[in-house]
Amino acid sequence: MRLPVKVISLFLPLISTILAHDDVYSVKYTTENFSQEIGKKNHFVMFYAPWCGHCQKFAPKWEQLAEMLNEDESNNIKIAKVDCTTDSDVCSEQDITGYPTLKFYKVGEPEGVRFRGTRDLPSITTFINEQLREGDDLPTEELKEPQAVGGLMELNEDNFEKHVSKGKHFIKFYAPWCGHCQKLAPTWEQLAKTLEFETDVTIGKVDCTQHRTICNNFEVKGYPTLLWIENGAKVDKYQGERSHNDLKQYVNKMLGSQKTETKEEPQSSGSQLPSGEITEEVFKVSIQSGVAFVKFYAPWCGHCKRLSSTWDNLRDKFSGNNGVKILKVDCTLEANKQLCNDEEVEGFPSLFLYKEGEKISEYSGSRSLEDLYDFVSKHSIHDEL
Fold it and tell me: What is the number of other CB atoms lying within 10 angstroms of the CB of residue 269?
């Protein structure tokens, strides 16, 4: 039975109050401040109505996205919302005809770009990355030959392919507006300076807002992305801490190993990079035997970053047990988007445990090393590890 509009209107204040309790992370704009606020930085805005069933169902995901992006003020994007039942003038100006409507506003531009994909986090984060990359027109000087300044190579579309075609290279893919990139910049320069006279590796950087073809070819979906490249091919994606010492130790580890990953078909035991990173291509074969504990994550997610070192330590604790694999999947990569949808990843990080290829549990407890270790141990094929 449909309620009369007059009756529904009586309940709107109550519904709005209930939904307001969930406004922990997203920012709510009104007619008075909407235009002013979206002029300050990039925005992704949900236009909604409190009585809308689709809005109510989607609200937790929107808050999850807001928690991941709004908690770090250095991010050049803010997640916000507008209640079209109380601020109808804004919604009318923005041509909102249905709920929820999601629109991305590039800084300084009054017209937004409507999101038309499926409302899941992998699709939404891919859309955000695409919009942020397309929104930058910062000038740069085109260099015909790599110029090493303090040991750091500035690479572009004219010299990148030739430069990385031989030897080993540790490359930072970045965007000038990215807060995390700005924080990393002095450390990256220090690393390059430290290794300036190391003949076995070069330290470089690529501005993805100016050289998108390079970044697309290497499936760069977030910033900064740090890749280890050998003879023109990506070997590993660095996921550890970004201190000078951690980065230097990683370089030493990669130089000390004579093994390099190739793009050959995975072996029956499962193919994975040294960091435990896997893709959709090898996912099934990687989890088909024994116990596999998989972290589905996004590089920009604050909770994922805090878990990163613990996850590496967990993998180290099980390194001598062939029956247990500690793996991770980057859901922001286009190559993994369908996998994350198929595995029903609804937030980051999502920790799923697989046994003999079948998902048997989702971990939702404490993320301390001890608790994670105990959880995996209880599900291990062997009683003693």
Answer: 13
